[in-house]
């Protein structure tokens, strides 16, 4: 995706930016850890507010 496309898309998002891999990785890391052992059958959207 070009820088121009990223800027255009980010203008439509509540956080005014496009997600980076680290934005998603934190949630994945948590869900894969023992800290999430009591979470079952949950839908966890990581959408930046969309």
Which stretches are low in confidence, meaning pLDDT under 50 for 5 or more residues running? none
Number of continuous helical runs: 2
Top-tier CATH class: Mainly Alpha
Corresponding CATH architecture = Orthogonal Bundle
Cα(first) to Cα(last) distance is 19 Å
- The helical percent reads 40-55%
Biggest beta sheet attributes: none
Strand content: under 5%
Shape: elongated
Number of domains: 1
**Helix-strand string:** HH
Question: What would your notes on this structure say?
Answer:
It is a single chain. The chain is an all-alpha fold. It has a single domain (1-50), classed as Helicase, Ruva Protein, domain 3 (Orthogonal Bundle). It is 40% helix and 0% strand.
Strands, helices and their partners?
Layout: H1 3-10, H2 21-32
Organism: Paenibacillus hemerocallicola
InterPro entries: NAD(P)-bd_dom_sf, SDR_fam
Pfam families: adh_short_C2 (PF13561)
What does this entry show, briefly?
The chain has 50 residues and is mainly alpha-helical. The protein has a single domain (1-50), classed as Helicase, Ruva Protein, domain 3 (Orthogonal Bundle).
Describe this protein with a few key phrases:
50 residues, mainly alpha, Helicase, Ruva Protein, domain 3, SDR family oxidoreductase
